Amino acid sequence: MGQKLHGRVTELIPFGVFVQVADGIEGLVHLRELASAPVESPSDVVQAGDEVTVVVTEIDRERRRLVLSRR
Length: 71
What we know:
Elements: E1 4-13, E2 16-22, E3 25-30, E4 51-60, E5 65-69
Parallel strand pairs: 3-5
Antiparallel strand pairs: 1-2, 1-4, 2-3, 4-5
């Protein structure tokens, strides 16, 4: 946790975006973690294919989930 990673936005969903940080590894950046100021839609900040830097905020090994932030 706390590690900075570079990745590519793969999918926009109503409550955030998925970012691929390595082959076969994607994490979710929740809408509230996309920018320091509140945004209504992920497309207000990023588009699919954008390269972004994210920080790992949570690793859930049991459910195989990676939670990320851009803030």
